[in-house]
Amino acid sequence: MKLYKIISLLTLLFLLWSCTDEDNTEYNKGDQPLEISASKETVELDALNPSSEAIKFIWTSGTNNGTGLAIEYVFQMDKQDGNFENGISIDMGRNVYEKSYKNEELNDLLIDKFGITPASETIFQYRIIAKVASENLESQTSPVQTINIKTHKPITKTLYLIGDATPNGWSADDATEMKPITNTPKAFSWTGALSAGEFKLIATQGEFLPSYNRGENDTKLVLRESDSDPDEKFVITEGGTYTVKVNLISMAISITKGEGPEFSELWFVGNPTGWNFNPMTVDLLDPFVFHYNDDLSAGGEFKIGTAAGNWDAVFFRPAINEQPEGTNLDVDKWAGDPDNKWKITGGVYKIKLDTRDMKIDIVPFTPFAMIYLVGDASPNGWNIGSATPMTATGNPYVFTWTGTLNAGELKFTLDKQDDWNGAWFIAGEADKNPTGDVEQIIYNYPGAGVDYKWKITQSGTYTIELNQLKETIIIKKQ
């Protein structure tokens, strides 16, 4: 019996030591020196490949003097004549031994942070600092290294239609926004009504320059940077629904008549909502796609209407009556009989209707347990391992947070994946400035190909309310 107790005690001590070691230590790092290097000594940032990796910094672990204590790293970069006080300083966290930058990301950072002139070469210095989790051990700093970086002229992240052919005329303050095309850098698309008249494209709402104008023909763009440059416009001879697609890398444009969605509004109608016409939400990235996310616990039948309150109008329907929930289900549309409908068992659902491919997803929704703030606007910056948690409410779909936001970028992680390939809620457009009112957000699943962030322009106290079912957010400055 005594031997059994001794073995049990030793087993318990081993398990406790293992848990502590795994959670709070990094084992013996030895006595290797702390060093950092870059994948290139000279970098010319590539405007034509904004999402490709430009440079990677790699460092050794340094030493924790055999204590087994954790080491946290801080990456720093500054101009060669600087002292790192006003440069870049990023908390990388534990067990991280590299930092990479994409072409556009680094180009924007150098221009915005250091005021570097576009298309110029500058020598930067960089180093890594290792902080052991002990008051008795001093921080280690690597030898300083240098790198030569050439910036490029930035290509706009936003694009707008302006002209008497467009919905809002020649008002630069109210220019019509185009949406970025998923997985195609610097490509934009817009679908809607154009009138007979002229139009061109501007990079920034409220500013007439720079603009993208008609080039040598109707498929080519040219960048106009001053009032003395030619001001050729594109001409629409016949009003109608058009799709305009632009690629600012190849400087190509296509203007196609008749490709727009048939419907700009749709309504969910069925048992779960008492046969009321409830509006669906148009997808932020694709006007052919509509969403309806709601608690449909009552279950039962539903169809999707094309005209509010009109029972004789065309409805989107399943090909087979009482089609149950599922994904990639076939959709048809007609008025009158047979009055086919989908039939759900009941619960909380996210419904997505694609009117281009005529498919529907009817998926029960399980909320994420926690949502976290990430970005240099947030309290813990870009350290995803220490992302700032929001506060759960009595509603499992609604999270809130109140605190100080810095000027910078912001998005929300749903699962804190260390490799950054998890699920996110992101802004509906690049560099989105919060309005303080209810706004739509995008659920950015792994591989979705977009990464839009909110741009906080004024530091201060903010209150955030995020509804992960309705996919809405309020970011309001106090």
TrEMBL record:
Keyword line:
Signal
**Signal peptide, first to last residue:** 1-23
GO molecular function terms attached to this record? starch binding
- Which Pfam families does this entry report, sorted A to Z? SusE (PF14292)
Q: Which Gene3D superfamilies match?
A: 2.60.40.3620
Keyword Isomerase attributed:
no
* CC annotations in GO: outer membrane
- UniProt keyword Signal, yes or no: yes
Tell me the ranges covered by the SusE outer membrane protein domain, including all copies.
21-128
Domain of life (superkingdom): Bacteria
What protein name applies here? SusE outer membrane protein domain-containing protein
Q: Which organism is it from?
A: Dysgonomonas gadei ATCC BAA-286
